[in-house]
């Protein structure tokens, strides 16, 4: 009995260590980098605001990207839905819609609609998802441009300052409480876990990943499942677009034409790769949030370093970000060799003999 309890405790500790190792390493690295530049990681309320906004926003983007990515459908339209939803939210706020709840529903609803249209086109046209999603991205970029009347001057701050303050308070800007960001993230996480692990849709989703033909033969409706995947991804992207609109509060449409939206989804790739490791110790959805926590530590550190030293440019930041991603990919592809090196497993085995 004692051995079983000890084994269970050891297993729990191993799982907890596996879940927390990425954010712990990122936190230590971030603190050391900030110290080297004569600053600290969380220096004021603005740092906390930046961290929690990034955590909620990037988690939603990563969730949206992961839904179709894990099913082998690379969907570029996620980025364009973020921009389209943010444009809808900003334009409505500029027109005097002063309810944050209604603006949130507008962002969510426009995202759901965009996802359903993307999924419907995928099922109807039968084109490869990557090619189709590029076309859909162009379409949504154009719609956002039209919705904003092709103008960059649609500013909530200028036209509706009272509503602007409400939106800033909602996302915890300038040191305000991040409560609503935490609630949105918690609701999104609970939704993802519930839907993908405790429903028939989630069962079919996982079955289609592991064996499409077998899953279809046993009753999984591939077309309905794919459409729901696009709808869920669109809704999550719409929520991310709402948060993005609350942050920038003016339309930025001309710069997002001709695939200008695509880089918005690339921010999620590094956390998703981190989640590939963390997901060995917990479900994918929790792994994504935990990985985003670690990534946001690094993001905050880079921002603080840039603020105190202008030589730390966005170019250097991009190089470091890419290097982190490449190193982690190398680790994932050579994990057994790395673990043998770290634990000296081979040497100890030879000594035992």
How would you describe the overall organization of this protein?
By secondary structure, the chain is mainly alpha-helical. The longest helix is centred in the first third of the chain and has 35 residues, at 2-36. The chain has helices spanning 2-36, 45-69, 77-94, 100-125, 129-147, 156-159, 161-170, 179-197, 200-210, 212-217, 222-248, 263-266, 269-278, 284-308, 314-333, 335-343, 345-352.
Summarize the structure.
With 353 residues, the chain is mostly helical.
Distance between the termini: 33 Å
Multimeric organization: single chain
Number of strands: 0
What is the string of helix and strand elements? HHHHHHHHHHHHHHHHH
Radius of gyration: 22 Å
| Number of helices in the DSSP assignment | 17
Question: What's the overall geometry?
Answer: globular
Strand content: under 5%
Instruction: Give the mean pLDDT.
Output: 87
Main sheet summary: none
| Low confidence ranges | 1-6
Features:
disordered N terminus, mainly alpha, 78% helix, 353 residues
Present the secondary structure layout.
Layout: H1 2-36, H2 45-69, H3 77-94, H4 100-125, H5 129-147, H6 156-159, H7 161-170, H8 179-197, H9 200-210, H10 212-217, H11 222-248, H12 263-266, H13 269-278, H14 284-308, H15 314-333, H16 335-343, H17 345-352
């Amino acid at each position: 009995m004692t051995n079983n309890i000890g084994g269970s405790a050891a297993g729990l500790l191993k799982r907890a260590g596996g879940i927390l190792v990425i954010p712990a390493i990122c936190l230590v690295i971030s603190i050391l980098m900030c110290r080297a530049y004569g600053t600290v990681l969380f220096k004021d309320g603005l740092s906390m605001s930046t961290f929690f906004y990034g955590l909620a926003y990037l988690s939603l983007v990563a969730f949206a990207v992961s839904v179709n990515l894990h099913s082998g459908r690379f969907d570029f339209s996620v980025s364009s839905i973020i921009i389209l939803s943010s444009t809808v939210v900003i334009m409505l706020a500029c027109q005097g819609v002063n309810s944050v709840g209604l603006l949130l529903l507008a962002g969510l609803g426009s995202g759901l609609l965009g996802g359903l249209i993307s999924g419907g086109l995928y099922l109807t046209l039968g084109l490869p998802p990557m090619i189709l999603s590029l076309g859909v991205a162009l379409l949504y970029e154009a719609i956002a441009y039209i919705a904003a009347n092709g103008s960059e001057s649609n500013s909530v701050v200028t036209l509706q300052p009272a509503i602007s303050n409400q939106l800033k308070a909602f996302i915890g800007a300038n040191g305000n409480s991040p409560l609503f960001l935490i609630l949105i993230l918690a609701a999104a996480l609970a939704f993802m876990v519930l839907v993908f692990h405790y429903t028939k849709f989630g069962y079919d989703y996982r079955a289609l990943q592991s064996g499409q033909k077998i899953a279809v033969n046993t009753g999984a409706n591939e077309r309905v499942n794919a459409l729901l995947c696009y709808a869920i991804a669109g809704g999550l992207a719409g929520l991310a677009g709402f948060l993005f609109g609350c942050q920038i509060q003016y339309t930025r449409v001309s710069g997002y034409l001709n695939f200008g939206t695509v880089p918005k989804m690339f921010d999620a790739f590094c956390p998703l790769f981190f989640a590939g490791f963390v997901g060995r110790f917990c479900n994918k959805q929790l792994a994504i949030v935990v990985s985003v926590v670690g990534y946001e530590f690094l993001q905050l550190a880079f921002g603080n370093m840039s603020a105190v030293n202008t030589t730390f440019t966005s170019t250097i930041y991009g190089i470091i970000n890419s290097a982190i991603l490449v190193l982690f990919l190398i680790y994932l592809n050579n994990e057994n060799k790395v673990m043998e090196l770290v634990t000296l497993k081979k040497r100890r085995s030879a000594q035992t003999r």
